[in-house]
């Protein structure tokens, strides 16, 4: 008799590999998402690979990968991961990002990163939560892709209001002099990992600092994209 090792986090049907955490049906349902703009990762039509807004004013980095929109069931799982300390979800959520990266690399010849970095938390917020969700997403990605992972390359030096509590106009101002790059990234192709991309204010500020360090390229990888 076969022993059920685990159940899918979404539909609760049995899965044989507990480390995967999601059944193949739910995985395909999540990954068969609508086409996305390669720059901002917002949904676009099937013909264009860059939305009209990004053709006029693209993000300052080379492209954005996201697993799905910030909607159930993924938004619910992310909330459990981030606010209910369900850190066992990290490997499964990271794998969704990985599968999207491999798709982009295969179809659009995206650059493989030399270094993976994560959006940091302020030490006080880290102490309160006990972990940095972006760090937990980034570590397995670097391992699976045989890239370097530099967990301390970026520091958060100022405790600010949480970005999700602010309106669009306040988000960029909230990030003024918040981050610091602690090591040289000259000539490196960098993947910046975060959990959610909303306005892009956090990514924009960190990418600006990475570009000041003369990183060769920066891609932004995240689990969810808000609409």
TrEMBL record:
CDD domains, per the entry: PRTases_typeI
Domain of life: Bacteria
InterPro entries (alphabetical): ComF/GntX_DNA_util-trans (IPR051910), PRTase-like (IPR029057), PRTase_dom (IPR000836)
A family per Pfam: Pribosyltran
Occurrences of domain Phosphoribosyltransferase (ranges): 181-225
Family: Belongs to the ComF/GntX family.
Protein name listed in UniProt: ComF family protein
Species, as recorded: Rosenbergiella nectarea
């Amino acid at each position: 008799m076969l022993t059920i090792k685990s159940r899918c986090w979404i539909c609760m049907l049995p899965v044989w590999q507990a480390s995967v955490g999601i059944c193949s049906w739910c995985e395909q349902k999540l990954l068969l998402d609508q086409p996305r703009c390669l720059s901002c990762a917002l949904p676009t039509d099937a013909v264009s690979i860059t939305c009209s807004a990004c053709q006029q004013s693209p993000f300052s980095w080379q492209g954005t990968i996201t697993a799905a929109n910030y909607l159930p069931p993924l938004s619910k799982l992310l909330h459990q991961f981030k606010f209910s300390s369900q850190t066992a979800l990290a490997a499964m959520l990271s794998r969704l990002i990985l599968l999207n990266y491999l798709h982009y690399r295969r179809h659009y010849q995206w650059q493989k990163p030399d270094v993976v970095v994560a959006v940091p938390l302020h030490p006080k917020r880290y102490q309160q939560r006990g972990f940095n969700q972006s760090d937990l997403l980034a570590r397995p990605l670097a391992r699976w892709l045989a890239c370097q992972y530099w967990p301390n390359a970026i520091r958060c030096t100022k405790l600010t209001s949480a970005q999700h509590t602010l309106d669009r106009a306040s988000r960029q101002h909230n990030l003024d002099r918040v981050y610091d790059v602690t090591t040289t990234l000259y000539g490196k192709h960098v993947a910046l990992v975060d959990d959610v991309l909303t306005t892009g204010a956090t990514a924009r500020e960190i990418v600006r600092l990475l570009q000041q360090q003369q990183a060769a390229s920066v891609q932004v990888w995240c689990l969810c994209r808000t609409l």
